[in-house]
UniProtKB/TrEMBL annotation:
This is Conserved oligomeric Golgi complex subunit 7. GO terms for cellular component: Golgi membrane; Golgi transport complex. It comes from the Eukaryota. The keyword Membrane applies. It comes from Protea cynaroides.
């Protein structure tokens, strides 16, 4: 039986568990006592063996301790000895370092002297070579070997740079410049012929000669000179066709009978806009051919040479191009076509004052610009391998004829919109006779309402023109122009609104005492130059009310349309911001990375930067100040609180307030007229007649002034319903329409109540009979207000309570508990006019 002693070393050893496990390993036939006795014996034997082994190992360890101590002492002595040796070595190294530094310094001086001597030797050799070259250069030129002559001049240049500014060789330096000019003069005619005949080998040889003497600019100059000529011939083709067309027209006119007038028989002038696409196509084809040829003839320079040709071409044709564009824009309008003038002439004032820029002028300019944009995209695709800066310069040159127009874009757009706004029929209303005022009012309001979408369409068209022509680079000028034009239009609306006040009969002639109150309150001071109710029929009265209510739709339409347009304008500015940021910053990033680009290393970045170029980016890259102003505006447009048309937004709100004021004045006009003399009615001071006979008492009926006001207020909802239905159908919001009608009903009812209470305050004295009558009037008006779901003001309820109470009981009423429901200052006023003295 084997005994495992490993369990005894465990931290959580359990003796009982170990004994039980040992018992389970016995043979079933062995008795437990015998198995436990054997186990005990084995454990005892093993413990004795362990004790003996431990004793032997302890004895051996005690014998090894002195030997180990001696070894430690020996190692310590060895370490001290090694440390002393290392210190000596370090001391020797320091001494060696000092002497080595002196040796190295001496060697450096020797090396410097050696280098100077070698340089002096080389300089002497160059000087000797320069003298020899200077003496033999004429023989080289006489041989006619141009490559050898170029090599000789290059060596002379090298020798001169090595010799430096030495007085003895000053003449040689001047001689070299003369010789280089002479060699360039010998190369030029051959280069001209080689370029004209497209001889690749000759062109390459002559290029190497020019590069060897540092005259590569001469190659650029002659390449441009040779290839500019056919393009100028293409450009001059337009004038030739115009002259031919003019001769044909004169011949045609001469063949006509003198007594016959036929406007269509005269041939029209040849159109620049119809000719320009063909010119661009021919130039593009020519450039494509040159690009392919230059790839073979100038494999290292074609990416720069052909774009340089385009730049020089546009510089040469720029003045003529601008002039032709100017005449082409004027050709679309008969007035300017007859005078052979265009947009620039109008802007410069070189026209009669009646001549203005029209939309057709600008549309013709944009059409020409679109043709140029298509050509620029083709150029960009053709020159995609060129350096970014070269590509930018080329595209800017292509667009350069339009720059003078773009700089004046804001002025042009302002003039066009101003003329279009002035052409809208917004004649002010004219006061007419009885029966025609409602028709005049309705017609004027109709013109006002119809003009709003027309103006918005004009403004939206201006935004589209700005994007089409400038790519959004003139967005800041456009915003200013749109704001000014909206102010101009709203000013016309306000003037028209003032004319409507006269038609509606609510003009006010100020007496210098008071000022107008805000809408919703009465006017205390001023003389109302109002219509006389008796002179106007009820039908005409309600037609004027209906016409006035329709003005609310004008204000609502202007507010909503201008708000939607502003939101659309902000979205447009956001799109411009995105496109310009990609173009400008993408191009700059590409430009900054171009010097790092290797074969395909930054190809993806380069392609992305070039693909994002547009007309706006080309203008903004080189004008940081304008770019900064524009991007500040575009960044501000991201704020939801930003008003693209700040002044117009304020003026729209002011116009809406003026409309609300006018409508309120019209609606309250009849009430004001009926209540104007209430405080001075004689019935308030009348005394009941005495009679010798007892007479029955009759109920007091409300007077005509209050019944007229009440009937007017009760019928007013019927007048507001059509307007509410119109708003509901246009906005698909029935609840808002009902709220709109209810709000106006409350405004008029509140105004009528305020007017009535003001008149009641003006009563100086009232008798018992007058108190009964006024109590009936107040009760009737209170019933009307209740029918309109309006709360009864405490002033009226107090007046009614105090007037309906007999005079001798009024003092008791104010002392009773019911007085808590009354307005005490109002009750005091009633007591005053009823001549009731309150006990102090």
């Amino acid at each position: 039986m084997m005994v495992d002693l490993g369990a005894f070393s465990e931290e959580k050893f359990d003796a009982k568990k170990w004994i039980n496990a040992a018992c389970q390993t016995r043979h079933p036939q062995d008795p437990v006592e015998k198995h436990l006795a054997d186990l005990e014996m084995k454990l005892q034997i093993m413990s004795e063996e362990i004790a003996v082994s431990l004793e032997e190992q302890s004895t051996a360890a005690l014998h090894r301790v002195p030997r180990t101590g001696r070894d430690v002492i020996r190692l310590r002595d060895d370490a001290i000895s090694i440390r002393n040796s290392v210190s000596g070595i370090l001391l020797k190294l320091k001494k060696a370092e000092g002497s080595s530094a002196e040796s190295i310094a001496a060697l450096a001086k020797v090396d410097t002297v050696k280098q100077r001597m070698e340089a002096a030797y080389e300089t002497l050799q160059d000087a000797a070579g320069l003298t020899q070259l200077s003496a033999s250069v004429e023989d080289v030129f006489a041989s006619g070997d141009l490559p050898r002559a170029a090599e000789t001049l290059a060596n002379m240049r090298h020798c001169l740079s090595a010799v430096g500014e030495v007085a003895e060789f000053a003449n040689v330096r001047k001689q070299l410049e003369v010789l280089e000019d002479r060699l360039e003069g010998m190369v030029q005619p051959r280069l001209y012929d080689a370029l004209s005949n497209r001889t690749v080998d000759a062109v390459q040889n002559l290029r190497r000669i020019l590069i060897r003497i540092g005259r590569f600019k001469s190659l650029e100059l002659h390449y441009t000179k040779v290839h500019l000529k056919p393009i100028k011939q293409l450009w001059g083709d337009f004038d030739s066709r115009q002259r031919a067309n003019k001769l044909a027209s004169e011949k045609h006119d001469g063949e006509r009978l003198p007594n016959i007038i036929d406007s269509s028989s005269s041939l029209s002038a040849y159109s620049f806009s119809s000719w320009l696409p063909s010119f661009y196509d021919e130039v593009l084809l020519y450039l494509e051919q040159e690009w392919k040829w230059c790839m073979t003839a100038f494999p290292d320079d074609y990416r720069m040479l052909v774009p340089k040709l385009v730049i020089e071409t546009m510089a040469t044709l720029s003045a003529s191009f601008v002039s032709r564009i100017n005449l082409a824009t004027g050709d679309v309008v008969p007035e300017t076509r007859a005078l052979a003038k265009g947009i620039l002439d109008i802007l410069s004032g070189d026209m009669s004052k009646g001549t203005k820029i029209q939309t057709k002028h600008l549309e013709a300019l944009i059409e020409l610009h679109n043709m140029t944009s298509a050509f620029a995209r083709n150029i960009q695709h053709l020159f995609l391998e060129s350096d970014l800066q070269v590509l930018l310069d080329t595209l800017k040159a292509v667009y350069s004829p339009y720059e003078s127009y773009k700089q004046r874009y804001g002025k042009m757009e302002r003039a066009i919109l101003s003329a279009e706004i002035a052409a809208i029929d917004l004649r002010g209303a004219v006061a007419r006779g009885v029966g025609a005022q409602g028709i005049e009012l309705s017609e004027t309001v109709r013109r006002m309402e119809e003009s709003i979408p027309q103006v918005i369409v004009l403004l939206e068209a201006a935004v589209e023109r700005c994007i089409s022509f400038t790519g959004g680079s003139e967005a800041d000028e456009l915003i200013l122009a749109l704001d000014d034009i909206m102010l101009q239009y709203i000013s016309v609306l306000q003037e028209t609104l003032k004319s409507l006040r006269a038609v509606c009969g609510v003009d006010i002639i100020s007496d210098g005492v008071g000022q107008k109150k805000e809408m919703g309150s009465d006017r205390k001071d001023g003389i109302h130059n109002s219509r006389k109710v008796d002179a106007v029929s009820d039908e005409e009265e309600w037609s004027i009310v209906q016409g006035a209510l329709q003005i609310l739709t004008v204000a609502d339409c202007l507010t909503s349309r201008s708000s939607v347009f502003e939101a659309s304008l902000r979205a447009t500015l956001a799109r411009i911001n995105t496109s310009l940021s990609l173009s400008v910053f993408g191009s700059n990033a590409d430009q900054n990375q171009s010097h790092v680009a290797s074969d395909g290393g930054n190809e993806e970045l380069s392609m992305a930067g070039r693909a994002s170029l547009d007309v706006a980016a080309l203008r903004l890259i080189d004008v940081p100040e304008k770019s900064k102003r524009l991007f500040n505006l575009l960044d501000q447009s991201k704020d939801p609180r930003f008003h693209a048309l700040p002044l117009s937004s304020q003026r729209v709100a002011a116009f809406a307030d003026a409309v609300n004021e006018l409508v309120y004045d019209v609606l309250i006009s009849k009430v004001r007229q009926r209540l104007s003399e209430v405080s001075r009615l004689p019935i308030w001071s009348s005394v009941e007649e005495t009679s010798a006979f007892p007479l029955p008492s009759f109920s007091v009926y409300p007077q005509s002034y209050v019944t007229s006001v009440g009937e007017y207020l009760l019928t007013l909802p019927q007048q507001l319903d059509p307007l509410a239905e119109g708003i509901s159908s246009s906005e698909a919001n029935t609840e808002e329409a009902q709220f709109f009608a209810t709000e106006w009903m409350f405004k008029v009812a509140e105004g009528a109540t305020a007017l009535y209470m003001e008149q009641l305050r003006g009563i100086q004295y009232i008798t018992d009979r007058g108190a009964q009558q006024l109590s009936a009037d107040i009760e009737y008006l209170s019933n009307v207000l209740s029918a309109l779901s309006m709360p009864i003001p405490q002033f009226l309820s107090t007046y009614h309570s105090c007037l309906s109470t007999p005079r001798d009981q009024l003092r008791d009423l104010l002392k009773s508990d019911a007085a808590n429901q009354l307005d005490f200052p109002t009750a005091q006023l009633v007591c005053k006019i009823r001549r009731v003295t309150l006990d102090q």
